[in-house]
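User: Fold both of these, please.

Assistant: Here is the first one.
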Amino acid sequence: MATTTPTRDAYGPPSGGSGSASNGRRRAWRSRLWRFDDMASPYAYIAPFFLIFGAFGLYPLIYTGWIALHRVELTGLNQSEWVGFDNFAKILQDSEFWTSVSNTFVIGVISTVPQLLVALGLAHLLNYKLRASTFWRTVILTPYATSVATAALVFALVFRADGGLLNWVLHFFGAGNTDWGNGHWTSKIAISVIVIWRWTGYNALIYLAAMQAVPTDLYEAASIDGASRWQQFRKVTIPSLRPTILFTIVISTIGSMQLFGEPLLLQGGTLGSTGGSEHQYETLSIYLYNYGWKLGHLGPAAAVAWAMLVLLLLIALINWIVSRFVRKSAA
């Protein structure tokens, strides 16, 4: 039986015609889409951050700077008068502003230093194998989960001059009643205790996470060389945690500049909103609150906000210089 062998041209695409032209245009269009997607996708992924930052970060910052250069009252937000840098000159010539700066700095130091030292010690203890380690980690984080208002109100009862828990305890040791809220140093110590209680566990968990990232080979080598646990902590743990420690210092500094709830609720009422009878624990946030919401002068209040920003930038610059010096000395 005779058979015919199909030729090669029987299955080949037609030469020329509209089909090949449309396929070429489709491939070119897909290639352009692919190149556009390759270039535009990274910007699309990061666009939400910049949109949110622009709406809730950059715009309020620029608007606050605009208000700082005008006379704007809380009762007439639609009326403004250009005053230039008069608002800045007004707060810089106010002795109460410098008192609040001093109080903020002192409270920040006496709360940040013990807080980070205690957090470092707790993290070192939790880094060892303990029974119910998850329970203890949850316990030290509980104060951070407590609201500022709750913590401040509870400690306000502890530090009360009449019938306070702390004075009741000190009475058994022969100490007289201390008016914690009205003393220049005792009021700052009381506020610092609230800050230390709330933030120590948070920083301890940050240090613990950094400690668990330290290679165990370093500890084994130090142990073989005869180093004790204290020597391992000083020579291995602390150098490995140096970037984390600098990070917590910066974060704690920013937090101390924003102290508001603790001093406001320590005594409450008029005394709390003015930072004490003699402004002995008035922070920059309380000072800003008085100008903006009690007096209704939004121009000086905005100037205070920008002064706080400048102070934070100066502190960040100092931290950067110190960290750079530490890195060079370590190298």
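And the second sequence with its predicted structure:
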Amino acid sequence: MFGFLNCDKPIGFSSRDLVNIVQGRLRGRKVKVGHCGTLDPLASGVLVVGVGPAARLTPFVHEASKSYRATFRLAAESPTGDMEFEPTLYPDHPIPTAQELASACRSLTGRIEQIPPAYSAIKVDGKRAYVMAREGQDVVMPARKVHVEAIEILSYQYPDLQLQITCGTGTYIRTLGMDVAKAVGTVAVMTSLVRTRVGEFSISDSISETQLRENEIESLLLPAAIGVSHLPRLIVNPDECKRLANGLCLGTRQPDTPRGAEGDPEHVAAITPDGHLKAILVQKQSSWCPKRVFPD
């Protein structure tokens, strides 16, 4: 078994809950399972689960761009930035226009600096930030660089604002909404979040929790190559596959690079002519060498 499950995680389930369902369906079989990017229980949408050797591809799937549909309530705030706690309302805050919000969204696209929320899973001094925050400690979160490709206003009827966001890994959506609100002189809490896409995995093609429970996992698996479609690729012939299987490098070759990619690639996917993922490669001097090798 070697591939991905494109799951639609329901609200109220943790990412681990879905992994447990898959592992339960595979009970008695020595098959690794791991999810590619946590979704909070209050969020729903695309959760990619790697099965078999594909579980080793988790860090590469993380690199793919993601899309979200998020709703925010303006002039409201909570300690967590979402609806886990009852929000405090500020009826005296200014009511921004749609044009002001659109301008704020544009100002927060590109390579930006973001301060993650204290109620997050990021480790600070070796401890999860949300654990420290729940203990009443003051948590100073370090700023980080993230890439936001686009923020589109889907609907706006004060105080509710719905955004479509396309971004890179590590972006905190609730923080992004709070920063949009701050730019127009108010605050916000996130009231709902749906992840609609991870790389080529779309919510329109996802499978439900019920389908996971009622169908054979093999019948639901998608090819592993889909999970790394955002990486540059080299097409490898049978002789090159044997070299990679034996830990040997390939000669100097120029990989096919996805549209929009910039700079020299850190990782390259080695793909057979029939679309099977054979290996993840890294460059050593002028050669492409195997970092992860997968079964035929």
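The mean pLDDT is 90.
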